[in-house]
Specification:
There is one protein chain. This protein is 28% helix and 23% strand. It contains nine helices and 17 strands. With 418 residues, it is of the alpha+beta class. It has two domains: 93 residues, Rieske Iron-sulfur Protein; 249 residues, Naphthalene 1,2-dioxygenase Alpha Subunit, Chain A, domain 1, CATH 3.90.380.10. A hairpin with a 2-residue loop joins strand 2 and strand 3. Pfam families: Rieske (PF00355), Ring_hydroxyl_A (PF00848). It comes from Devosia psychrophila. This is (Fe-S)-binding protein.
Length: 418
């Protein structure tokens, strides 16, 4: 009988290129535990945006596996991250997802921490007690133009500066820090986190499953097979390619970087970006393809800015429009459940009911998320079937799924080698 380490090594080294993973990658509790150790406790994880904690004393909690992390805005307006663990006897400090505090006070024995993590009050500990070495344990936190990433390991991947330098010119014009969260949804998908990401990394399924999304978004933007298309689809695909080229040129001339950067499997912090043209009126991810918010983001004066797509390995994808932003994070709960957290951001000065309507703002992605959730559950059920075996990816429409899996296997390989 193989031990757990040997069994995992056999799975990782036995992965067949160009194919989906063996069933235990999606169904095994042991593999899930290894995923948390190798991936989610060691990589930069997207957790939210600076507007999640807009004012001093605002706190957000994020749970990643067994870890709970506090994201806090200090009095000096700096954002810091700490483990959500009292240094006395380990009690959790904050249970709520969002809170506003003057100090962080443990309900158990009233140990009190300043917003910068210093222990400032510990009653009945005696004259010899040294509070200076019992501050909250910090967590690495980086903001990429307002997008917040944390890393739980002591020595995080060193390439975040590279990713930030490449991505900042793309994201900065959208002024994330000058937005507010208009709406958030938390959806638990009944599937393994890798199935959630795999589903996101392709649009092979879009035309058949996403009638709302494919109103503004061209499915061709993520690959297609022209030799297999009927004349109408081919005509639309050619229209998209022509629009993509002309739009990229126009946007670049406006100072908006638009061309693809694709490093999904070539570095530890894998990422991809591209500004994609939209169909119809070409303004936003709405059913009428017009802007959902009357007040644009940043200093934009042209509504037809397409949609900037930004992905990070292992757990996020984002869409930056001229009028709003939609961000997504996938947080594993166990081998068969994944929390997908979606936030819709609008200009901080926009007024609900005057400048934007919530139902219109969230309609496309609320429907798409529900459809994707059903697809992920369907795949999870299939992976649990004894008849399941890894199937081949389409080289024309699922190449980015393959890149995600290659990234995952490479990270697991490095973890197992240590």
């Amino acid at each position: 009988m193989l031990d757990k380490q040997s069994a995992l090594e056999a799975l990782v080294h036995g992965r067949k290129p160009g194919h989906s993973l063996d069933a235990p990658f999606y169904t095994s509790a042991e593999v899930f535990d290894a995923d948390m150790e190798a991936i989610f406790y060691r990589h930069w994880i997207y957790v939210g945006v600076e507007p999640d904690v807009p004012e001093p004393g605002d706190v957000m909690t994020v749970n990643i596996g067994k870890a709970s992390v506090l994201i806090i805005r200090d009095d000096d307006m700096e954002i810091r991250a700490f483990h959500n663990v009292c240094r006395h006897r380990g009690a959790r400090l904050i249970d709520e997802e969002k809170a506003t505090v003057g100090n962080l006070v443990c309900r158990y024995h009233s140990w009190t921490y300043a917003l910068d993590g210093r222990l400032v009050h510990a009653p009945h500990m005696g004259a010899e007690f040294d509070a200076s070495c019992k501050g909250l344990k910090s967590v690495h936190l980086r903001s990429l133009e307002g997008l917040l990433f944390i890393c739980l390991t002591e020595e995080p991947p060193e390439d975040f500066d590279y990713v930030a330098a490449r991505m900042a010119p793309y994201i900065a014009p959208h002024k994330v820090r000058e937005t507010k969260i208009a709406y958030q949804s938390d959806l638990i998908e009944m599937g393994n986190w890798k199935l959630t990401i795999e589903n996101n990394r392709e649009c092979y399924h879009c035309e058949a499953n996403h009638p709302e999304l494919t109103v503004p978004l061209f499915a061709y933007g993520f690959g297609f097979s022209p030799e297999e298309m009927d004349p109408l689809d081919l005509e639309n695909a050619q229209r998209y390619e022509a629009l993509r080229k002309t739009s990229h040129a126009e946007w670049e001339n406006m100072g908006l970087p638009s061309h693809e950067i694709e490093e999904l499997d070539s570095r530890v912090t894998g990422f991809r970006t591209e500004r994609l043209p939209l169909d119809g009126n070409g303004e936003s991810h709405t059913m009428d393809t017009r802007a959902a918010c009357r007040i644009p983001l940043g200093a934009f004066s042209n509504a037809k800015l397409g949609g900037l797509s930004f992905w990070t390995q292992p757990n996020s994808w984002h869409h930056f429009l001229g009028d709003h932003i939609v961000t997504f994070s996938a947080l594993p709960l166990d081998e068969g459940r994944t929390l997908v957290r979606t936030k819709w951001l609008v200009n901080k000065d926009a007024v609900e009911g005057v400048d934007y309507d919530i139902a219109n703002l969230i309609e496309v992605w609320t429907a798409t998320n529900a459809q994707d959730s059903a697809l992920v559950q369907m795949c999870q059920q299939g992976a649990m079937n004894p008849a399941y075996e890894p199937g081949p990816y389409s080289p024309n429409t699922e190449m980015l799924v393959e890149k995600f899996i290659r990234w995952y296997i490479s990270r697991m390989t490095e973890y197992l080698a240590k």
